[in-house]
Amino acid sequence: MLHSIVEKSAIRSTDIVLEIGPGTGNLTALLLEKAKKVIAIEIDPRMVAELNKRFKYSQHAHKFELI
Questions:
Q1: Which residues contact 32 (CB under 8 A, 6 or more apart)?
Q2: Widest Cα–Cα separation across the chain
């Protein structure tokens, strides 16, 4: 289902994506493969910790911004 969301959104490599409430980052990971940059806004401190752990040192870290 997440793959179909990304496919239907037609994200290009030049797009900057704003994701509200990324949770554990499953959709975020797919968005990072397609987009130029993903800006994620998360208010749950547990999810912030999970997202940092998952993406801070990943191959897409330079394309990921967490607010």
A1: 38, 55, 58, 60, 63, 64
A2: 31
Instruction: Give every strand in the sheet of 64-66, ordered side by side.
Output: 16-20, 37-41, 64-66
Query: Residue 41's pLDDT is what?
Result: 98
- pTM of the full predicted structure? 0.93
Residue 36, both tokens: 């130029």
- CA separation for the pair 31, 12 (Å, rounded): 10
Contact status, residue 39 vs residue 17, Cβ threshold 8 Å: yes
pLDDT of residue 55: 96
CATH number, span 2-66: 3.40.50.150
